[in-house]
Design a protein that fits this description.
Elements (H helix, E strand, L loop, with lengths): L11 H27 L4 H8 L1 H21 L10 H31 L4 E3 L2 E4 L9 H6 L1 H28 L3 H6 L3
Antiparallel strand pairs: 1-2
Helix pairs in contact: 1-2, 1-3, 3-4, 4-6
């Protein structure tokens, strides 16, 4: 098993980060779609939304670890093709990374500035502030959380569409690089 990235394919650690973050973000998006469709009162939506902070914080940690891993592997990673598609891929990946960092970060800031305790997987990371002592700039930072989450969903849809385009239309090795196949 190849741990580190190489010019031919991504290593096991990169693939772990990619696919685990993908599954967790999809869970987050589906949970918000279920909440919007069924209302928070439904049992399914209540359960899914009840995991949102814990799953989101897990994404927050994994994305930061992934960014560190990207820099540790920056000279080994497969390169994007030249031209318009390669430039679009670089910009799309940069936008995805920025949103994967931004969306959970503003949620944590919102929680830190708000009145509710912030609990992750049953562990209280910090207590809520007393009523009237919210930090407005922090609690208001979360106003962009949901909107940017849906923007990220659109970018993810584009990312998936382009991966399928590479695999089905171009029939190049783009998908196999992240699947770990030679």
């Amino acid at each position: 098993m190849q741990i580190m990235d190489s010019p031919d394919r991504y290593g096991a650690v990169t693939r772990f980060f990619h696919w685990s973050i993908a599954v967790l973000i999809i869970w987050q998006l589906v949970s918000m779609a279920v909440k919007n469709a069924l209302g928070r009162e439904s049992e399914l939506a209540s359960f899914m939304v009840g995991t949102h902070a814990s799953v989101g914080f897990t994404v927050f940690i994994l994305v930061w670890l992934r960014v560190i891993w990207v820099f540790a592997n920056r000279d080994r990673r497969p390169v994007h093709e030249a031209g318009l598609l390669g430039t679009a891929a670089k910009l799309g990946h940069l936008a995805l990374y920025l949103l994967m960092l931004f969306v959970p970060t503003v949620a944590v800031l919102r929680a830190f500035g708000g009145t509710r305790p912030f609990t992750v997987w049953g562990i209280e990371l910090f207590a809520g502030r007393p009523e009237g002592q919210e930090v407005a700039v922090l609690s208001n930072a979360g106003n962009l959380h949901g909107e940017m989450g849906w923007v990220m969903a659109l970018l993810i849809a584009g990312h998936v569409a382009m991966a399928l385009f590479h695999g089905i239309v171009l029939k190049d090795r783009t998908l196999t690089k992240m699947a770990g196949q030679s």
